[in-house]
């Protein structure tokens, strides 16, 4: 055996390189780093052209633009990594507050009602997952159908118009309600939590394995069906909770909130953050930063008074560039590793 | 039926296993024994049903009929995890590696180490153990943190073998563990098989197409043809030429080249 082994120096760490290449290296390795840089640059730019950008009032607006997208993006990242996606998340977002309303009207305390409503939202995910995994319908179709079913249901339940939610108690108000940065704080906490789940638990490894090599994962005994279904449930729960927070924030449960726009913003955030659609790779932090990027872009355009028509163009370009970057960087990395 | 392991000296024994995929007969009637402490070479042409047999023994597929005994106990593995709990480890032909995950995570896939009772992974311990196992085998790898996608075919195969071999299992099913390997890498795996054999108390079923390697490392050889075992001999009573001849005869005779030995 010893004859086949080479001296340890053969696999010693590569010689230290200059700072420049090392920074490039970090950006290669940490896909999140590039989107962070771009977002920061955008932030600095908007701050410099308009002093109102970096004000508390506007930071509030920015956080409101960011948190719902970020929370849904977390769920989409989990799904994309295991090779799935959820087009119904934006409609779960609109639907869940009305489930909460049902519980409140039935006399359930609000806090418990929120938990039950989020559980009900995850039930939508369970249904998405079962239909996709057990029957073998493509998740695009399953969740597209679910999106329309929810849209119709929400409109019927809401009688087609927004409802003012009942007042929150003082403690509930702190957790779900009017404190201006409640949403973004939830988003940050949940990002940290999901980051740990994806990178430091079995669930996370299995999520990567399920998306990267479903057959191999199954051969290795990974319960890929359970992983997919669980991630559908997580995505729906996150979307439902985000919708509830948003409903309380604007003091209106609106059947037309969320929807496809919010859902596609969330998938855009995931993609801009470096998560591939093909499964097997993706980052939670990237998803959050992608949402922040979209938030800064929308907020900056709003405050500059630039037409939202242009926003869509920039957003579209950003999505495509980040995907091109993904492909390009993985090729570069491959080249660097193999050389 | 008995749970007493000493009842029959077999690690694995199957009786009349049959398996169809829709209209295709994969296994017609397979009765095969893997004795305890033995290395059994399973040979046969592509499509003969070798991988199907392995996948039935690991619980990936369910047999349509027939009985399986593992260490003397009748049990049909329900899933790869169940098979593993019965002491069976497998190297699949496709290796079952996840390209996007680093080497050490692949080596611990579905047997991850955790930090005590916490549901968190003990990455440091996994990396360290992966490193030790690979060094032990003599596999060169710059970092166990490298994603598997960047490895050569032989390295990938070594990772898959290491994953199976460094475990508490007593039965190893190796489906073409040498397929993508050069001479040097093959030597690493063959040495590993010999080492395991020397330690005793492990039993191995090895699928291979290189009959020199089969004769070199196996105790006994079985030929699987058209879903049936048609040849079964200790390697001492056969030779590379005979085995080559057996499989080649299948082509010459067309359909059922049933060869029952000399």
Short descriptors:
heterodimer; A: 339 residues; mainly alpha; 14 helices; globular; B: 262 residues; alpha/beta; five-stranded antiparallel beta sheet; 11 strands; disordered N terminus
Overview of this structure, please?
Chain A has 14 helices and no strands. The two termini of chain A are 27 Å apart. Chain A is mainly α and 339 residues long. Chain A is 75% helix and 0% strand. In chain A, 47% of the residues are buried. Chain B has 262 residues and is of the alpha/beta class. Helix content of chain B is 32%, strand content 24%. In chain B, a hairpin with a 2-residue loop joins strand 5 (65-70) and strand 6 (73-74). In chain B, helix 5 (153-165) packs parallel to helix 6 (183-199). The two termini of chain B are 36 Å apart. The A-B interface holds A 1-2, 4-6, 10-11, 196, 200-202, 205, 208-209, 211-213, 215-223, 280-281, 334, 337-338 and B 55, 58, 60, 79-81, 84, 90, 92, 94-101, 105, 109-110, 112, 114, 119-121, 123, 135, 137-138, 140-143, 146, 149-150, 184, 187-188, 191.
Helix content bin of chain B: 25-40%
How far apart the termini of chain B lie comes to 36 Å
Query: Low-confidence parts of chain A lasting 5 or more residues at pLDDT below 50?
Result: 1-15
* Content of β-strand of chain B: 15-25%
The outline of chain A comes out as globular
Number of helices of chain B: 8
Shape of chain B: globular
Topology readout:
The complex is a heterodimer of chains A (339) and B (262).
Chain A: H1 19-29, H2 31-49, H3 56-81, H4 89-105, H5 110-135, H6 139-157, H7 170-176, H8 182-200, H9 202-212, H10 214-219, H11 224-249, H12 259-272, H13 284-304, H14 308-338
Chain B: E1 10-21, E2 24-30, E3 33-35, E4 39-43, H1 50-57, E5 65-70, E6 73-74, H2 80-85, E7 88-91, H3 103-107, H4 123-137, H5 153-165, E8 171-175, H6 183-199, E9 203-207, H7 211-217, E10 220-225, E11 228-234, H8 240-252
Parallel strand pairs in B: 4-9, 4-10, 7-8, 8-9
Antiparallel strand pairs in B: 1-2, 1-3, 1-5, 5-6, 10-11
Helix pairs in contact in B: 5-6
